[in-house]
Description:
By secondary structure, the protein is an alpha+beta fold. 26% of the residues lie in helices and 23% in strands.
Amino acid sequence: MIRGSGRRPWLVALGAMALxxxxxxxxxPEKTVVLPSPAPMAEFWAEPADLASRNLLHGEGGxxxxxxxxxxxxxxxxxxxxxxxxxxxxxxxxTRWHAKMGIxxxxxxxxxxxxxxxxxxxxxxxxxxxxxLGGGPEPGPKGPARFRPELPGWKDRGSWLxxxxxxxGTRPLRGLIVFMRLVNNWDILDRNNEVYDLDxxxxxxxxxxxxxxxxxxxxxxxxxxxxxxxxDVEDFEKQAFIDQVEGGIVHFDDKGRRHRDLYRNIGxxxxxxxxxxxxxxxxxxxxxxxxxxxxxxPTAGRFIRRLQDKVEQxxxxx
Length: 318
């Protein structure tokens, strides 16, 4: 049996006792937790009937929402938390964007595109290679950054928990956990899970359960603090995917740093479920998922080959 190293359930329950009412609970002064309640699966995942035709270059937001390359943005505030530097900015249309810079920007966009492709809810994300910051303490030209918009119809309701949510025990949630190992996301956190209330409804639902901040991916996983890598194709190629299968239970080569207990009792069918959907992507879609993040063609090709190798390994499990 694989032992978990994340927070124990009794700690979650203890923390819940000190939290507020009204359907949300505080994680820290800036985040709240949305308590589990019945929810349609479509708020979290929906089978993509159009999978083979989904546009992975522009993703959920489409081309119309994409910020213009080289566009100027006005400073609103500087990002104060998390690993990556960044800003909240405003474009000429008045839309506010969260711009994340640094090594996490590219893998976050690519991984988000792949998640969205196989049916998981995702916010619109874009990568700008260059842009200009107006105002603030550090104005001037800026390099590559991930841009996520604040949309008027998307209200941030708070975070959902990996261990306590409406989809615990379902194949899509278990498939999402498998996906995290496919892309080697080694730093999954509850505070990176977001619930958005949607007005008007989108895709037939009034709420999205989303995994975001996916930048600790496409490198080497590690259980040790700050020992994993991100957007490192050589590390990604070297690390194994599945270690062994015992009694229909899949043991992965590594479980990452956070929530290691989530990978306990993941079955062969859970792995196949995710891999079968990724296998339906066309060569152009794979390439677009990496083009959207600004990866050069040789590097993208190496990442894609390794991902496809993992997908085929998962599909061949006995």
